């Protein structure tokens, strides 16, 4: 095979692989399961709420990403401008790769948490603290809808 044909064949192969990867990534985009969790937290509890998230839950979710359970970084939001009244104080967002990843998370969460924080009682311990200092909490599982 001539050098010219060899380069052409390599180019076609690479182009095909990149195209296939892009198509697969587009399909994966719609299998991601997004969990948005909303919390109302009184002003006197906000510092403690953020401390627990920063020191216990955020490191835990970073580990879930390393394990391939989540598809993106764990994120937290607060409202910049409140409308009529604040319905929520903080919102967290986790993107699971798919429903099987949620099942996997449920299976390993206490074990992983125990390795990160030996001597604590598992993932439910920081969740109990969060639940005790937040006035209201709800979760919404959402999915992206293709528009094109």
**Helical element count?**
4
Overall strand count: 4
Mean of all residue-level pLDDT scores: 84
What order do the helices and strands follow? HEHEEHHE
CATH architectural designation of the largest domain = 2-Layer Sandwich
- How much strand content do the residues show? 15-25%
Number of domains: 2
- Rg over CA atoms: 21 Å
Describe the largest sheet: 4 strands, antiparallel
Instruction: Look at the structure and give the CATH class of the largest domain.
Output: Alpha Beta
Question: How would you describe this protein?
Answer:
The chain is of the alpha+beta class and 148 residues long. The protein has 2 domains: 1-30; 32-142, Alpha-Beta Plaits, CATH 3.30.70. The protein is built from 4 helices and 4 strands. The protein has helices spanning 3-29, 46-66, 99-116, 124-133; strands at 33-41, 75-78, 90-96, 134-142. A 4-stranded antiparallel sheet has the order 2-3-1-4. It is globular, with a radius of gyration of 21 Å.
Topology at a glance:
Elements: H1 3-29, E1 33-41, H2 46-66, E2 75-78, E3 90-96, H3 99-116, H4 124-133, E4 134-142
Helix pairs in contact: 2-3, 2-4
């Amino acid at each position: 095979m001539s050098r010219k044909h060899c380069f052409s064949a390599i180019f076609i192969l690479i182009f095909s692989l990149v195209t296939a990867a892009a198509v697969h990534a587009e399909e994966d985009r719609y299998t991601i399961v997004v969990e948005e969790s909303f919390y109302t937290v009184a002003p006197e509890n906000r510092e403690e709420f953020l401390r627990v998230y920063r020191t216990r839950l955020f490191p835990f979710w970073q580990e879930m990403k390393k394990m391939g359970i989540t598809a993106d970084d764990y994120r937290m939001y607060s409202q910049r401008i409140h409308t009529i009244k604040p319905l929520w104080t903080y919102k967290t967002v986790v993107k699971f790769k798919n429903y099987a990843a949620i099942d996997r998370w449920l299976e390993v969460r206490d074990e992983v948490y125990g390795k990160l924080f030996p001597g604590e009682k598992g993932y439910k311990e920081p969740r109990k603290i969060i639940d005790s200092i937040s006035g209201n909490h709800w979760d919404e599982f959402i999915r992206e809808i293709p528009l094109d």
